[in-house]
Amino acid sequence: MSTTQEHREIVVGVDPVREGGLALAWAADEARRRGLALRLVVAVPPAHDTQHVDGTPRHQALTRKAEDALRAAADRVRDRQPDVRVGAELADGFPAAVMAGAAQQAAMAVLGSRHLSRTEEFLSAGSLVVPVTARARCPVVVVGDAEHVTQDPAYLVVGVDGSESSRAALAFAFEEADLRHCALRAVAVWQPPVFTLRGGDALFHAERRLLAETTAGWAENYPDVRLTHEVLTGSPVELLAEAAEHALAVVVGRRGRGGYTGMRVGSVVHGLLHRAHCPVITVPAG
Angle at CA 218, nearest 5°, toward 215 and 219? Predict the structure, then answer.
């Protein structure tokens, strides 16, 4: 049974400062597709923030703004998908920690993107994308750009490299493509080794065989999903982003284990969060 079947809600981070309509619309549509509830979450930093002497009045003002944002977000979801059950949560705490906690028992977490630079992402207290993606136990969707719904046929892209997290991403991608009745483009990116005793052509064909074998079982389980697969040569970030230029979304596994949150999401995931021009879905191993 998949993670999205075990847990019955999608959590959505609502930004009380900036418009987050794309992420909210994406989450509402996904909740309808999967028959899940939505939980809208806004976090208000604690009043004892030492950077502000007048912490209590500031906290009250932020709380009022957060309450208004939650009401507006709930109304937008009901207007877009009236059959989706919507709950709202106003939490005290720093946004990244609150959202990471909310994502621990969710089917999926959905975030908007402020398109921060990498430096801003590490230094900004309001940045959610990297810390939540690094810590969540469920798939995390970052909606910085709209789905390319006018593409015919519509398709998803999934990155495949044979790892455990890649297999989890492949499973999710097939399930999502089946729900959407769209095509699936499985992409492996091969980086030729600098030194090797084997011929480059032999290694490339071995990569193609691995991709075909990895996707074969899933294709049998989802016969209605039109699957194409290809091996590209070069930079994984650039080529996956290019493959997904007109996609509904790009799906990749995340498995980084570095000491910093940016490293824990893995270099390919981190790169796609900045480079891809469609929603980015990252799926944890297991």
Answer: 80
